Amino acid sequence: MTNKQLTIGLFGFGNVGRGLYEVLEKSPSTRAQIRKIVVQDKSKTRSIDSDYFSYNADDILTCNEINTVAELIDDDREALKIVETALRNGKNVVSGNKKMIAENLQLLIKLQQQTGSSLLYDASACGSIPIIRNLEEYYDNDLLNEITGILNGSSNYILTQMQKHNAAYRDAVNKAREKGFAESDPTFDVDGYDAMYKLIILTLHGFGTIVSPDNVFFTGISTIDTFDIQFANEKRQKIKLIAKVYKTEAQKIALFVIPAFISKSSYIYNVDGEYNGVIIDGEAYDKQLMFGKGAGSHPTGSAVLSDITALSHNYKYEYKKHNFASVPEQTNDVTIKVYFRYQDPAVPDLLPLQNIEEQYSGTTHHYTIGHVNIGDLISIKEILKQRNVFMALHELK
After folding, report:
1. pLDDT at 75 over 80
2. Per-residue pLDDT for 346 more than 50?
3. 7 CB burial (10 A radius; 0-12, 13-18, 19+)
4. Mean pLDDT in residue range 247-269
5. For 220, phi and psi rounded to 5 degrees?
6. At 255, phi and psi to the nearest 5?
7. Is the pTM of this model over 0.90?
8. What pLDDT, on a 0 to 100 scale, did the predictor assign at position 1?
9. Over the range 58-84, which residues count as b (16 or more CB within 10 Å of their CB) and which as e?
10. Quick one: fold of 139-294+334-396?
11. How far apart are CA 50 and CA 45, in angstroms?
12. Under CATH, what is the fold of the domain 6-132+297-312?
């Protein structure tokens, strides 16, 4: 393979963009250099030479000297415009925008086929863990049964603060902000959106199936209470925000994002702080764990740099499983065992439970544990959130 020189146009100089710049400075052997950085805010003081900066996207997108675009902005609609234009202009692209990617997978695959340009986005899932490329290259057969993991470092850091340091939820969120693990508005992380978009991307590369975000059940930790932490502690378990996709007995796939009670026997029981952990489970190789930092400027910046390095060797995703003669269909017709904690005694009447295995009613907190269909949960998720109901998978071993 040819190790070609890359001239980079960078969109965005926030937490990840700055991280990329800094890790690239520490990697002198990498045949890549940043030529131009496009940002929006003209009044913001920058930590590097102002000659790098521009406020016009065309300074990158139409520049013949720039052959690689690093798209690291928050706006998913603008990100799609940048990526589409760059690919059509013959430039390779690296992106970390998991929402843009997950919502436009079919289009992005088609654009790469039409233009011959490459789009890499390992940085969009699991921070420093090279999960996508491993699914593409090492697990490129149909022996994969399940992907289960902690995909959001911000939520994991918050939960660790609550469980190890007895922090209240709001205090834990504020500390995550101070550390740079959470945004000023943490909704994207704590309500499960981030993990859900990442799971959709992993589902494509793991099983070949493109899933619409509208068809995925996901919930987060924003309604968690110290009561739930105490409940977990009494059972010698931890609460983690889990994303899971797996083959059903009918050879379809089911996927969801939900907090879960984790027992000590689980591979990810000790994955704490801002770290991510992903379990790959297959017919021939049993369970394997991938572990690494999932939040922070440098870990994510290093993932972007890894994609850039791969581009210098002309690497492309082949979407091998997506191109199989048949790919598994998604189903929400699966049953899981869920813990529901609530303050309003009327909540059980709203729950579409198939059975009740345990129920508790206290002075201020109540809970019900029972089996429920994921499709039924999707239909009432917003109602339960309005009632401040916390949901968790009863146990992940």
Report:
1. yes
2. yes
3. middle
4. 96
5. -125, -150
6. -145, 150
7. yes
8. 45
9. ebbbebeebbbbbbbbbebebbbebbb
10. Dihydrodipicolinate Reductase; domain 2 (3.30.360)
11. 9
12. Rossmann fold (3.40.50)
